Amino acid sequence: MESFPTVILKPGEADRIVAGHPWVYHGSILRTTAQAGDGELVQVKDHRQRLLGIGFYNSKSKINVRVLAPERVEIDQGFFEQRIRAALAVRQRHIPNATSFRVVNAEGDFLSGLIVDKYEDVIAIQISSLGMEKRKEKIVAALQNIFSPRAIVERSDIASRKFEGMEEANGVIAGELDGQVTVTLNGLKFQTNILGGHKTGMYLDQQTSYLAVAQFAKNAQVLDCFSFLGGFGLHAARAGASHVHMLDQSADAVAASLRNAETNNVKAIVSAEAVNVFDWLKANTITKPHEKLLPKFDLIVLDPPSFTRNRASVPDALRGYKEIHVRALKLLKPGGTLATFCCSHHVHSPLFQDTILSAAYDTRKVLRRVATYSQSPDHPIIPMIPETEYLKGFAFELVR
Ligand code: SAH
């Protein structure tokens, strides 16, 4: 095996790596023994020269090394094939019936900088580190061997690539595809544009929660806020809702969600509006003096985008979360259910719940928590890598 330059960590900086966290920040490095090339392999050692692992180096990134393995192994096509098959086995164990899911979720599958999504017979990849970028051919060859997909699409159109010194990239890199793919989640069909939709085409991280929340939908008047392609709304409709109203600010998303309603034969009980949820909730909760607001909904789903970009934006985000909860609670019938989600890593679960309780206090409502939710198992949580946990949710019944 070739010899690699060695990155030696400062005393006290090795523990996190030993425990399984793959990131070595610039500030943790004592010295580097030889010139390490950006995107090339280095070995990482503690200050007593004990080997901690090997990983990809990038001087341009805040994360100088992304550790791949605790021992010296060849990072070839076989390595990627083995890691991807191991990740696939996790999905086959936990969501055995899913045909579309995230196959590799970066740090959650010990492949920092690589995301692989399976949309039926199409594979989408997203690369966010230079080390992975330089081995794209090996990764694609491994994916061909494992999945023999109809097409492989790259969705590396993410701003964070600039922190690694890379341009954005988007396009079909193997096979043929015009972009549109019909994805099946829990037996429902969602048409999406893999070359243009959110993330790598759509959100896969709520696959298990769609079913869990739909349990509350029987005979219900449902409001699905931030509905995108209709994930929650269409699952609720199939589960026997009397009516589902979906809200999303994107006219394209609303049009797609209505097409999806038609494909799944629930169009008759589904409506959708392209609006800003904040505006809609406000317009539907303001009352004239002495006028009493009549709550209309038995089930309200709130699944907003992350309102935070970083830790500093948390206070603003909490104001946003509180506002939608205050207004949603006013629209919820007593005995009804609020299913609410937060996908911001910076807002942890207790803080999210405190924000909801503060909204309940302001509206003089009392809640009973009846379920807690997390990201689907194809977005594995590695507790030693806190960044892998981001999605949390609750269902609350309105006691009064
Ligand atoms: N519930 C969806 C995912 C929602 S993602 C699912 O399960 O797939 C967030 C969605 O919120 C996006 O579709 C985005 O267009 C929409 N959005 C963001 N800000 C919004 C706002 N202020 N009002 C309405 N929709 C908004």
Please, could you describe this protein's structure?
- The chain is an alpha/beta fold and about 400 residues long.
- The chain is built from 10 helices and 20 strands.
- The strands form 4 sheets. It has a 7-stranded mixed sheet, sandwiched between helices. A 6-stranded mixed sheet has the order 2-6-5-4-1-3. Strands 7-8-9-10-11 form a 5-stranded mixed sheet.
- The mean pLDDT is about 95.
- The structure holds S-adenosyl-L-homocysteine.
- The site of S-adenosyl-L-homocysteine has 18 residues, from helix 6, strand 15 and helix 8.
- S-adenosyl-L-homocysteine binds near residues 206 and 305.
**What strand order characterises the main sheet?**
16-15-14-17-18-20-19
What's the domain count? Answer: 3
Category from helices, strands and their pairing = alpha/beta
What is the count of helical runs? 10
Q: How far do the termini sit from each other?
A: 68 Å
Q: Secondary-structure element sequence?
A: EHEEEEEHEEEHHEEEEHEHEHEHEHEHEE
Number of strands: 20
Flag low-confidence runs.
Answer: none
| Cα-based radius of gyration, to the nearest Å | 23 Å
- CATH evolutionary superfamily of the largest domain: Vaccinia Virus protein VP39
How much of the polypeptide forms β-strand, as a percent range? 25-35%
CATH architecture of the largest domain: 3-Layer(aba) Sandwich
CATH class bucket of the largest domain: Alpha Beta
How many strands, what sense, and barrel or not for the largest sheet? Answer: 7 strands, mixed
What is the CATH T-level topology of the largest domain?
Rossmann fold
The ligands bound in this entry are: S-adenosyl-L-homocysteine
